Amino acid sequence: MHFPSGVEIAAVAGGLTAVLGTVLLVRSARRHTAASRRARLVLAAGAGVTTASLVVGLIGLVAMAPEWSANREQRVTLATVVAIGVVLGCVLFSVGLLRLPGLAGDTRTVARHLLDAVVVGAALWFVGWVLLSEPTRILGAATPTTCTAILLASVAVATTVGVAVVGVLRTARPRRGLILTGSGIVTTVVGGLGVATGVCQPGTAMVLASTIAVSIGLLILAWAVRFPDTLGEPHGDVIRRGTAYAFLPMLGMAVSAVYHLLWEGRFTAPGIVAGIVEGFALVARQYVALLDVRAYAHRLAESEAHYRDLAYTDALTGLANRRGLLEELRRVLRSDVPVVLLALDLDGFKYVNDMRGHDVGDAVLGDVGARLRQNLRPGDLAARLGATSSPY
User: Fold this and answer.
1) Where is the GGDEF domain (predicted)?
2) In terms of Cα–Cα distance, which of 143, 116, 97 is closest to 243?
């Protein structure tokens, strides 16, 4: 009679827990409405894809456990399948996060969030590359050098972590639900990457530990969905939007690069590409910020011009008011230019105003103002002083 081994029991328990977390996440997402519900369902889809890839990895683990070291080619193929599932899950998680209330916005807002996420993610990936490559190589023989698909999965995981970090930083308080959501997503995708890495290597401890991480992450996600959508509005204002977040990723990259050089490490193509991506992401982010500042300055100038027009223009006739006339007189007197001042009076206007009512009187003033504006020469100014009997 065959009794299940400890590996089989742990794999089945971890897989069932992950499936339970996904089911709870789907059921909890249905409690929300409108845009929030759609975003939560996208997160649930990401959890489903990640769980499916985890189950595939665990089935392969149980099947190949007796001859784990001998099945190298099968393990590489299985790790590739798990890594693809992790990538798809990361994409869905990122999309779901960016559609949550408090983060969703127009195309430019989403572009800003993605660039910020790339800045954070590229820095995280570079630091991880330094730790995993020679001479540090913290995983030793467990470093997944033979599974190229894991490289793509690590990029997707780093970007998703960046989206989660930026989402928390960019959302106004209260944001407890978003913090739990981001924590659950980060734990889930990192655990999924660990499963793919563990499958690729001759050992099961990393697979089981990563399975526990995925299960915990999915349970956190299911718990986070229970929180109401009180995430507030994103900091879209140029003045209120923080930018200090970029210093920490750059500091991490700089310290890692110096450490790598001091220990006589070599910069291979992946590390160089990560640095290039970080540089271009920062430049693109600064360009978007410059566009935001220009748009903000343009709106400010338009607002100032509008209020200036209100201060120096008569709202009824569209002519200059008393303040506008006095300002123009001061200007021409300072320039020592000859000036002619002509005053007009409307005969019988008081009678129209008294007998026909102020509505008719206002219509007469508006019509006279329009005719005066049509017949002004360049440099002339028509103004209404405000009196009813002698309005111009």
Assistant:
1) 300-392
2) 116
Interacting residues of 262 by C-beta distance below 8 A, sequence separation 6+: none
Give residue 275's Cα distance to chain centre.
22
Q: What is the pLDDT of residue 11?
A: 63
| Domain 313-374 falls under CATH 3.30.70.270 | yes
> What mean pLDDT is predicted for residues 308-336?
80
Q: Phi then psi for 383, rounded to 5 degrees?
A: -135, 150
- Alpha carbon distance 233, 33 (integer Å): 17
Residue 95: what pLDDT?
A: 92
- pLDDT value at residue 133: 83
Nearest CA to 182 among 119, 266, 117, 115? 117
Residues in the chain: 392
Q: Return the exposure string of 187-220: e unless at least 16 CB atoms fall within 10 Å of the residue's CB, then b.
A: bbbbbbbbbbbbbbbeebebbbebbbbbbbbbbb
At 221, the amino acid letter reads L
Number of Cα atoms under 13 Å in the Cβ half of residue 304: 6
Mean pLDDT of 108-127: 89
Question: In the predicted model, what is the mean pLDDT of the chain?
Answer: 80
Percent of the chain with pLDDT over 90: 14
Give me the long-range contacts of 353-360 (CB less than 8 A, separation at least 24): 353/388
For residue 273, give the DSSP letter.
Answer: H
In single-letter form, the type of residue at position 20 comes to L
Q: Are 191 and 218 in contact (CB under 8 A)?
A: no
For residue 382 the two structure tokens come to 């028509």
Q: Which residues of the chain does CATH 3.30.70.270 include?
A: 313-374
Mean pLDDT over residues 5-24, rounded? 68
205: tokens are: 């401890």
pLDDT at 345: 77
Specify whether the CB–CB gap between 100 and 178 falls below 8 A. yes
Mark out the alpha helices in 238-341 (DSSP H runs).
247-262, 269-312, 322-334
Distance of CA 240 to the CA centre of its chain: 15
- b/e sequence 365-382, b meaning 16+ C-beta within 10 Å: beebbeebeeeeeeeeeb
Q: Which residue has the tokens 């009824």?
A: 316
Q: Which amino acid is it at 134? A: E
pLDDT in tens, 75-111: 888 888 999 999 999 999 999 888 887 776 677 788 8
